[in-house]
């Protein structure tokens, strides 16, 4: 902690004093209290693209064309102009400087989608180590597509989903991975998870988790597919057994079309046997054991069999956290009270289920409270993501959580609500130090590190310094003097640069009018 | 052994008998080694290798929860037997 609040005094102090061990990043971050994006350029004239986000290393700004076919990548720079007057600080920047191009330099524009495809503008994953970007294009959704090859009913189908791997440096498309007649939730990266170089893709339609590896050379490599089979050679083993001998049709189709008469899927078998063993171990008396099994396992057997994989995240390179829901409704499993959802921890190497919890489990909530950072599963390569404020690493966020818990009238409902955010989506939080709860206090309902859209408010959003309780800067989205049209619904989104005092606030109406973009920066 | 302190009474005459070079770059200058453990309880086993646990604390907790649930519980009937163990056999009435 610095003794003074003056930035020059802090710099001198930094020269002579070493920060306490392990706090060098926190000490460096305190300078963000002095350098804040307090100046706003309202309604900048900018190209009509939908801006997605800054990459986590701050090198690129990703945006998509309005027709969802092209990708445009910008390099964030800074404006430069010279002022020959006497008192330069009092002057506004010249009108020539107040342009979008002063801050962003277009690198390239690449067409990703063919004529009948659209880029999912809410999907983007970044591999920082190689500066690779992953984008997704898809054709239109088809409800009630014919069920083939093990597809489960109730899930829509998309004829072609393509994941594109691009080198962001120059926009070269390195590889593509295509899924046909499948369904993956692409919005806000919910159906995928990137951890280091491993990408998990949840195919809801076929109830399979595909694990892909992204090589340094820029290729997608299939590692395994968890669902019907768990080990890589399960399929070979089953096909070579006598039950399937003599059938020369496509082995996968043959197996899966027989699925209701022969075996349950591999992952379901692991799950059921785990639940059986846990229920078996609960009682030691033989009679009570059987009664317990009847009550807790066999009575709910069909419910367990009907569970659907809905979302997945990595916990480390070998372990997955899988959410199972009762009903897959349009791809999004709703956790209604009569459809409880479950969480399972699965070890990919040993193919064992390690743990299994219901969505209102207190012990899982306890782990969520204490080790939320580990649940965010930041990869080893991006150290700055370890400093995103959460209730496990920040006392102010922890206080907020405790307040909410004490205010909740029903603890079981509160636990369910908190655990419904699991498994976390990857790369959904901004690493900007302005969202650090130890530095600034702000209204979480209006703005936060998450990347979801918010309801537009005409009032500026205040960032108040934690240490000194004074207003440091304000972010006002929308036009400078408030909007005249109060009826149409407006949503706003905020893009903060990871380390520069630069932010974009974008206000959109829902009628495809061009958005209003403001640039907030430190003058 | 001719100690530098002469023949003064000492707790253990071997305490300052081991000599080690005080400066690794100058091995000829010897000084008595002043640390002598009084017991050997804390010496690590000779084949001990220290490595980092690969599983992070969250995953260790998951495994721990499951181990707790899977641990066989004591049967209710076993709890009636006292835990003392060392019981004298009763002399049979026929003796």
UniProtKB/TrEMBL annotation, chain A:
Transmembrane segments: none annotated. Coiled coil: none annotated. InterPro entries: 6-hairpin_glycosidase_sf, De-etiolated_protein_1_Det1. GO terms for cellular component: cullin-RING ubiquitin ligase complex; nucleus. GO terms for biological process: carbohydrate metabolic process; positive regulation of proteasomal ubiquitin-dependent protein catabolic process; protein ubiquitination. It comes from the Eukaryota. One of its GO terms (molecular function) is ubiquitin protein ligase binding. Signal peptide: none annotated. This is Light-mediated development protein DET1. It comes from Rubroshorea leprosula. The lineage of its organism: Eukaryota, Viridiplantae, Streptophyta, Embryophyta, Tracheophyta.
TrEMBL record, chain B:
GO terms for biological process: positive regulation of proteasomal ubiquitin-dependent protein catabolic process. Residues 1-52, 64-95 are annotated as: Disordered. One of its GO terms (cellular component) is Cul4-RING E3 ubiquitin ligase complex. Transmembrane segments: none annotated. Residues 15-28 have a biased composition (Polar residues). It holds the Pfam family DDA1. Residues 3-68 form the DET1- and DDB1-associated protein domain. Belongs to the DDA1 family. This is DET1- and DDB1-associated protein 1 domain-containing protein. It comes from Rubroshorea leprosula.
């Amino acid at each position: 902690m610095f003794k003074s609040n003056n930035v020059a005094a802090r710099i001198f102090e930094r020269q002579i004093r070493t920060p306490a061990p392990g706090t060098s990043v926190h000490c460096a971050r305190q300078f963000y209290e002095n350098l804040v994006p307090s100046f706003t350029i309202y309604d900048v004239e900018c190209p009509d693209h939908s801006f997605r986000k800054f990459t986590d290393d701050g090198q690129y700004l990703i945006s998509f064309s309005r027709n969802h076919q092209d990708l445009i990548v910008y390099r964030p720079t800074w404006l430069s102009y010279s002022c020959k007057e006497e008192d330069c600080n009092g002057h506004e920047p010249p009108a020539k400087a107040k342009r979008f191009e002063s801050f962003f330099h277009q690198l390239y524009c690449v067409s990703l989608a063919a004529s009948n495809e659209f880029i999912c503008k809410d999907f983007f994953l970044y591999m920082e180590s190689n500066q690779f970007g992953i984008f997704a294009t898809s054709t239109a959704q088809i409800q009630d597509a014919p069920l083939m090859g093990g597809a489960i009913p109730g899930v829509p189908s998309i004829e072609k989903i393509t994941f594109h791997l691009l080198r962001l440096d120059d926009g070269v498309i390195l590889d593509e991975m295509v899924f046909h007649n499948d369904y993956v939730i692409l919005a806000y990266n919910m159906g995928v998870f990137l951890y280091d170089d491993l990408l998990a893709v949840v195919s809801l339609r076929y109830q399979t988790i595909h694990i892909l590896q992204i090589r340094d050379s820029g290729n997608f490599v299939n590692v395994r597919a968890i669902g019907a089979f768990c080990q890589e050679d399960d399929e070979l083993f089953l096909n070579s057994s006598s039950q399937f001998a003599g059938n020369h049709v496509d082995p996968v189709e043959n197996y899966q079309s027989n699925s209701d008469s022969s075996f349950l899927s591999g992952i379901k078998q692991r799950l059921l046997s785990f639940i059986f063993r846990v229920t078996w171990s609960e009682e030691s008396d033989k009679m009570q054991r059987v009664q317990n099994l009847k009550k807790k396992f066999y009575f709910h057997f069909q419910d367990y069999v009907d569970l659907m994989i809905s979302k997945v995240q990595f916990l480390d390179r070998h372990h997955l956290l899988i959410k199972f829901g009762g009903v897959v409704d349009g791809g999004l499993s709703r956790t209604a009270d009569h459809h409880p959802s479950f969480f399972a921890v699965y070890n990919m190497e040993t193919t064992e289920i390690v743990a299994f919890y219901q969505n209102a489990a207190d012990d899982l909530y306890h782990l969520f409270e204490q080790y939320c950072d580990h649940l965010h599963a930041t990869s080893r390569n991006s150290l700055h993501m370890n400093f995103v404020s959460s209730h496990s690493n920040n006392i102010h966020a922890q206080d907020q959580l405790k307040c909410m818990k004490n205010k909740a009238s029903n603890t079981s409902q509160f636990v369910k609500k908190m655990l419904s955010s699991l498994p976390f989506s990857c790369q959904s939080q901004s690493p900007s130090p302005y969202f650090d709860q130890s530095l600034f206090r702000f209204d979480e309902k209006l703005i936060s590190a998450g990347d979801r859209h918010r309801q537009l408010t005409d009032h500026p959003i205040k960032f108040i310094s934690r240490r000194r309780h004074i207003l440091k800067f304000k972010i006002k989205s929308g036009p400078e003097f408030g909007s005249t049209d109060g009826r149409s619904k407006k949503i706003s989104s905020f893009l903060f640069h990871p380390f520069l005092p630069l932010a974009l606030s974008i206000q959109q109406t829902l009628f495809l009018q061009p958005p209003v973009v403001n640039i907030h920066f430190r003058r | 052994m001719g100690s530098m302190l002469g023949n003064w009474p000492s707790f253990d005459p071997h305490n300052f008998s081991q000599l080690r070079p005080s400066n690794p770059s100058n091995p000829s200058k010897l000084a008595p080694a002043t640390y002598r453990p009084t017991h050997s309880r804390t010496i690590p086993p000779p084949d001990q290798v220290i490595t980092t646990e690969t599983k992070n604390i969250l995953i260790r907790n998951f495994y721990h929860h499951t181990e707790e649930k899977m641990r066989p519980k004591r049967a209710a009937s076993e709890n009636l037997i006292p835990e003392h163990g060392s019981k004298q056999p009763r002399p049979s009435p026929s003796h």
